[in-house]
Amino acid sequence: MGKGRLEAFSDGVLAIIITIMVLELKVPHGSSWEVLAAQWPVFLSYVLSFVYVGIYWNNHHHFLHVAERINGKVLWANLHLLFWLSLMPVATGWMGENHFAGLPVAVYGGVLLMCALAWQPLQRSLITANGGCDSLLAQAVGADWKGWLAAAMYLLGILLAFVAPWISCFLYASVAAIWFIPDQRIESRIK
């Protein structure tokens, strides 16, 4: 089974997710700094989510670049990831509109956690479809400490959201910073 349709479909869904998020940004009514400043929570939540969608797109590209084969399990695992990513615009909008209140920040963290957990079956199914433990992809992924660290930080952020939502947002931004650089584990093995 070729991977071209999977890549094209995923790219399209991710582009739509970003489009929906940017459409939530409203044009400020007025020309003062105060009017613009009132929009900062919505804009800040958009920036964080844009970075996250970009990180998933980048890593998705790297994984599929290395993969030679896909199968039905990969297709379903990919849809599972795209489902959770498709919730990003709602969680982003809710968090921004409510100025980073506890429950919206926790829900945003929950979406991030589910995206991270959905990445794991996609990663495993791609490894299995491309030679298992001896494959280039398996060697590149290794123990995936970054993936498990991210999930732990999301969980901590969810729990802290009800006490200190800004600490939660700092944790979410920290995870994004960890993943912002393209995954060197894979890039170093691409010739």
What's the structural blueprint in terms of helices and strands?
Blueprint: H1 4-23, H2 33-37, H3 40-66, H4 72-86, H5 88-97, H6 102-129, H7 136-141, H8 145-160, H9 165-180, H10 184-187
Helix pairs in contact: 1-3, 1-4, 1-5, 3-5, 3-9, 4-6, 5-6, 6-8, 6-9, 8-9
Pfam families: TMEM175
Catalytic activity: K(+)(in) = K(+)(out)
Keywords: Ion channel, Ion transport, Membrane, Potassium, Potassium channel, Potassium transport, Transmembrane, Transmembrane helix, Transport
List its traits.
191 residues, 77% helix, 0% strand
Can you tell me about this structure?
With 191 residues, the protein is mainly alpha-helical. The protein has one domain. 77% of the residues lie in helices and 0% in strands. The protein contains 10 helices and no strands. It catalyses: K(+)(in) = K(+)(out). Its main location: membrane. This is DUF1211 domain-containing protein. InterPro entries: TMEM175-like. Belongs to the TMEM175 family.
Specify the biggest β-sheet.
Answer: none
- Low-pLDDT windows of residues: none
Report the total helices.
Answer: 10
- Along the chain, the helix and strand elements come as HHHHHHHHHH
In total, the number of strands is 0
Dominant shape: globular
Average of pLDDT? 91
What value does the Rg take, in angstroms?
18 Å
The first-to-last residue Cα distance is 23 Å
SS-based class: mainly alpha
Percentage of residues assigned to helices? over 70%
Share of β-strand residues: under 5%
Number of domains: 1
GO molecular function, one term: potassium channel activity
Membrane topology: Multi-pass membrane protein
Subcellular location: Membrane
Catalytic activity: K(+)(in) = K(+)(out)
